[in-house]
Specification:
Largest sheet: 8 strands, mixed
CATH architecture of the largest domain: Ribbon
Strand content: 25-35%
Helix content: 10-25%
Radius of gyration: 25 Å
Number of domains: 2
Structural class: alpha+beta
Shape: elongated
Strand order of the largest sheet: 2-1-3-4-8-5-6-7
Length: about 210
């Protein structure tokens, strides 16, 4: 965390941070002593005194007197202002459905990425038909199910009963889906093309 802290001071500070994130309050001396498996309060008090002197914590003499760390405040504000969206592996013909059959997980995203939890969902990208647009297999895309697609938007669509992620192209009265990979053909619907949502953001996870 800082070159100004010893290894044990870092460990104590990290424990305080993790405890505050989970419980919304600070650990007592006893809880810290039990966590680090030490028999005396003095060892913990010594580290807390050093952390206070170095400006890493603010503390009074009450049992849970360590004030919320700035790092914890920032994380709590971030979580409070985030929106929880479902991560879908596929989309049924009726539109995005939040059921165990289709939901692979959940993710919190900032309000700058999704305005609400009702109109947005996250889709896991399968395949490499959009690699020239910078969208790769395994990426996550945030999709607005209510946004009308404009010419050139990347959309999730149901084409002849099959889901796909492609670029929406309108040429006069003709509408088709364009792949962003020279090895893939454009898709012209035989019967039906139903846009299920317009991609608004991309999330790439590493590791």
């Amino acid at each position: 965390m800082s070159e100004h802290l010893t290894e044990k001071q870092e460990a104590v500070l990290r424990f305080i941070e993790e405890y505050q994130m989970v419980h919304g309050k600070s650990p007592t001396i006893k809880e810290m002593r039990e966590n680090f498996n030490v028999s005396s309060d003095n060892s913990i008090l010594k580290h807390l005194k050093a952390l206070k002197e170095k400006g890493f914590i603010q503390k009074d003499d009450t049992p849970r007197g360590i004030k919320l760390l700035e790092s914890v405040k920032e994380k709590l504000v971030s979580v409070a202002s985030s929106i929880k969206l479902p991560i879908l592996g596929a989309i049924p013909a009726g539109g995005p459905v939040v059921t165990d059959e289709y939901v692979n997980g959940w993710m919190n995203v900032g309000e700058d990425m999704a305005e609400n939890a009702e109109d947005f969902f996250i889709l896991t990208v399968n395949g490499d038909s959009m690699i020239d647009a910078g969208i790769f297999d395994g990426d996550l895309v945030i999709v607005n199910s209510k946004k009308e697609p404009r010419n050139g938007d990347v959309v999730v669509a149901l084409v002849d009963n099959g889901n796909t992620l492609k670029r929406y192209v309108k040429d006069g009265d003709k509408v088709y889906l364009k792949a962003e990979n020279k090895n893939f053909s454009d898709i012209y619907p035989l019967e039906e093309l139903l846009v299920q949502g317009t991609v608004t953001s991309l999330i790439r996870q590493y590791g």
